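Thread title: Can someone regenerate the structure for this chain?

I was given the following input by a collaborator and told the matching structure tokens would be attached. They weren't. Posting the sequence so someone can regenerate them.
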Amino acid sequence: MGKRYYCDFCDKTIPNNHDMIKKHNEGAQHQTLKNSYYLKYKDLETKLYEERQKRPCFKYFNLGFCTFGDLCRDSHKNKEQIQQMEDLYRLECHKKVKLEEEKLERSNKSLRKKNYGPKEYLTEYLNREENEKLENFFPKYNLPKKLAIYNESVLPPSLKSPTYKDFINYEPNSWTDDSN
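Best answer:
Regenerated them for you:
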């Protein structure tokens, strides 16, 4: 008994033969299932762009149905539906811009409280960026569950988790006498 190829989209197994797999992947059922699967993960901008590129489906709008379904090269959406998609996209973009503005406003409020000028703001920003990079560079340590219940100030220094400043300020001690 030879090995078999399993298709996740179709939930089928077929003989593991290059020609059989190629024939299966080019099949209408596989293409339909694959397209419907990936359609779930497309963002609104991509869907809208694709719909704008397509021309209206003659069969769908004149006969009321299209035999190709999701595999049809033409659009099955009328102008009102495309307009609704555009409105949704604009609303989504507006929400993103609004969130960015709110985030910027919050950061500006914190700076105004400190009465920073441009020079002070720049130095603090660069210091904050540098500290974040340093914090991400050094490893983070977690205490074992049994010790985590204690306040870290109660623990002896050997059990406290080191911070990135401890790594920076570390000066190795020598076990040998280097003065000779």
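The two ends are 76 Å apart (CA to CA).
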